[in-house]
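Just curious: can you write a single protein's sequence together with how it folds?
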Amino acid sequence: MNFKLSAEQIDIKNAAKEFALGEFPDRAQEFDRNETFDLEIWKKAAKLGFVAVNVSENYGGPGLGRLEACLIIEEFWAVDPGIGLSITSTAFGSDLLMKFGTEEQKKKYLPPLPKGECIMGSAITEPDAGSDVTNVRTTAVRDGKEYIINGSKMFITNGDIADYLMVLCKTNPERPKKQDQFSLFIVEKDRSGFEASKLYGKLGVRACDTAEISLNEVRVPVTNLIGEEEGEGFRQVMYQFNMSRVNVSAAAVGIARAALEESVAYAKKRVVFSQPLASFQATQFKIAEMATHIRAARNLYYEAAWSIDNGHVDHGLIAMSKWFSGQMAVKCADEALQMHGGYGYIDEYKVQRIFRDSKILEIYEGTKEIEKIIIARTLLGK
């Protein structure tokens, strides 16, 4: 078994690191404090091939694999999670569109993404439907050659800045199986009845746009239905989750790396009781544990991404990777802040931002509790 990256993968990883180090540090604190982001950084990233990397060459993308995408995400999050997410999330939903979209949809909506000309997102979560996707109440009713969409969405990444969103709606409430009642639609932001309200005051990843969406009698053409028929939305969303959960795992490794790097640097220069902080066994144990957990999490996401790239989507493995990596990142961030003491509690130090940014990894794209349920059901054959 070869655990080494290829020469091309190493080049991609190094290029992502170089870009992040050159563009993120000077603006990270500004974006975090003001809850803003400069889209010029996203456009620069697109020109260098870091956006919508999984979009195939047939539709204007570089056609990289899941592992290559994860390598970029890890490097971005190691420098700043908020900026990293703001860049890589601009194509959130493109994997789903690549897999299930019609040829006409792919040709229309995919090519602008890697060029940095359009931003997309996925609108699934609702005020009363987070982990339980089958509780979605937004409806889409067919009216001739159009669908009329009514409902609301909550915590939508890019909701306020996206040009179009993939919106999950209930189309077939009469069907006995809940999983057969939903469909996905492409909804352009400029359609009448579409409103987005940016959310402020998030704990972390504040640079990334998050919004509440209101859909009031929004009309979309039948051609905006993802796929060939109604009732496939739930399965399409589950596929998207499997892709994005591996991405989240890579993000977790990146932020945990940042926590470790900050801890090592601080421990070497900080003097406590007339001795370097790094000389204490308690400090050494913390650093050793962080490094070990990071290595384990990275190997998990490498395996999950490699499996996808080789045609096998392993739900249980992906859930393991997402749960373990998220938990590991939060633990590393906590230990890093503890090691910094009072200095870690103020935002002049990067470690405070790392601590706040890490928590989202245990929540979005499936909470840690949901991931454990998936793992158990996989093992129990349910």
Remarks:
- The chain is about 50% helix and 15% strand.
- Residues 233-269 form the longest helix (37 residues).
- The CA atoms of residues 134 and 170 lie 9 Å apart.
- Strands lie at 120-123, 139-143, 146-157, 164-170, 182-188, 194-198, 210-221, 271-272, 275-276.
